[in-house]
Structure formats: C-alpha cells, structure tokens
Amino acid sequence: MHVLVIYVVVLAINVAAVAKLNPANQAALAHTEQDNPDAGRINWAINDAPPFHVLHGEYQRQGVCDVLIKVVHRYLPELRPRYLEMPQTRISQAMDNKEPVCFPCMIYQPEAAKRAIYSQPTHLYYPHQIITNNTTAKTLRALYGEPISLDKLLDDPRFRLGYPAGRRYGVLQPLLNEHDPYLARSGPDGAVAILNMISSGRLDYTIDYPMVANYFQQLYNRNMETLIIAENQQPVAGAIGCANNAWGKQQIAAINQVMPDIRRDPEFLEVLKLWHSSNNNPANDDYDYYNEQGLKAFDAMAGKKSEN
To answer: Do you know which InterPro entries this protein is assigned to (predicted)?
Structure first.
C-alpha cells in the first residue's frame, strides 16, 4: 500500500524560479566563471535551513554550516568568501552543472564523487530519526515499538509524512522513493515550517537530524520527540562539497590541508554541541565524544582504502 506523502515547504515558488538564481546572484556567478581559479575566492552556496544555516532571527549566522564557513576562512585567510543564497534544489542543480560553487553542508559520500568533490569529513551528525509530537510518538511506539521500521510506517496511510524540498536521506532514500506519489512544494525554512505543522497536528511526522528538533525547541519552546529508525542507526558524516571541476578540486585541496584545525576549532565545536545537545535526550549530551571517535573511525577507514 502506498502512502500519500505530503512533501511540504512554505512560501511556494514557481518552477522557473527554482531553475535560476536571483539577478544579483546570477550576475555574480557569471562573473566568477570568468575569474582565474587562482583569484583567491570561495563561492559559498547557502540556503535558509536552520540550524544548518540560520539567515535571520535570534540565532542568525549561528548555524552549524554558517560557523563552518567562518572557521574555514579563519585558517585560509588568503581566500575570500562570496555568499550566494539559493534554494536547496538550485544548489543541487549547480553541482550537477559543475558551476563554481561549494556547499558546506553536504553528506560525505565520496563514492558519489561524479556530482561533487568532497572534503574529508568535517563533523558527525546523529542518524536521521523520526520527529513527531508527543501524542503521535506514543501512538507510534505502541504500534511499532522502537527502533521503528520506516518501511512499515511509510506503508501506513494513517500517518502523514512531510519534509523539505531537495532533501536527501542517504541509505533511507530508496525507501522513500518506493512510496510515491509526492505532493511537492518548494521554499525556504522548510524544516521549521514542517515542525510547526506537526506541532499543530496538520502533519504527523518528518525525517530529520535530531538537532533540527533541538533548534525548534530552543526557538519556540515546544518539545518534539524523536524515534530511532531501525533501517539506519549509523552516524552521518558532514563534509564540504565543491564543483567537480578543476576549480572545485583546488578549493577542496586547500580545505583538506587545514582540516585538523577546522575539526578542533573551539567555535566550531561549541556550535556543534549547541545544536546536538537535548534536554529530552541526555544521551545526546555526550556529543563531543561521539564526534571525536566517529571522525577517528572515518579517518581509519579512509586510510585503509588508500592502502588498497
């Protein structure tokens, strides 16, 4: 049985707008394409997606990826940043087109390097989880237990799923692809809008990182509950991704040279802990250890691959 997935984001924009930047950003990008790759600039694609990027409000520029960009330039002061705000769908298109941009909030997946060139992992996220309100969480636990089978939940038409346009979910994506059709609308700040709909009962659940629920709780003082997904309990590594061309390879090479400094930068570690700590889940308070040990494991795996 297929479930009707409500694939929601507020502030709908038309399809033509997704396919292009606003005039200022489009002109900036066209100018960049004429620049020498040695001009000393990184073009950062950013989008309105708290707590990855926080473009407005109380925590402005205190998103994980906002601070990551700042820290990159702390250790690469010879490179100047240029910020290009675009929706997630446009960022994906820019990568596919090999446009001269980098995105600081990619999932590390070097096996998919045709689309982008990835830095070494910058940090770890807790695995994607089901995020819902207290009432629905009790119902889901009674029906399915925990960890919860996402496959079974997607087959249950009583529960409505929503998530932001352009988001991908790694090993969970094939399950989502099997449960068409989707009702899609695109726009900024999708995750927070969806959590508002879940809180008010207009949607039942979303799939996201626990830190998104933490952000919502800190901003609105409304608790959300997270449920572990049976099909994916592995940590997710974040990485910087740049265009798969000579320009992008040059940026990633420079970033990797200072990756040890980036990973242990106090400001970066502070913002990671801010959004990964939860009053509802004391286990998440051990994030520093989780991140440190996880990065060591990724580095060890990368070392073994390079030896083979």
So the answer is: CHP02285 (IPR011972)
